[in-house]
Amino acid sequence: MAMSQAEMVQKARVRALSDGLQVYRIADGVYVVPAKSNPGEAYTVTVQADGQPACTCPGAVNRGVCKHQEVVRFRYLIDSTSIA
Ligand SMILES: [Zn+2]
Predict the structure, then answer these.
(1) What's the pLDDT tens digit per position in 35-60?
(2) Domain count, the chain
(3) Full-model pTM
(4) CB 13 within 8 A of CB 67
């Protein structure tokens, strides 16, 4: 049975954390995540106006889900939260 979108997102979140992905903020809402399996390569994740991250990796382009988007979701939440 095919995984649902929610299951794919869940799996991507676990991968994002277990892989210890690095995330670099290069502009407001724009992040670069080095490719774990492809040294020297990196993907750009842009947070859209609706708050959804969009990654340039093949997984995100083909399935709409990837671990880079999920790690950026966490990071963007932290970056956009002001702690006084
Ligand atoms: Zn990706």
Answers:
(1) 988 889 999 999 999 999 999 999 99
(2) 1
(3) 0.89
(4) yes
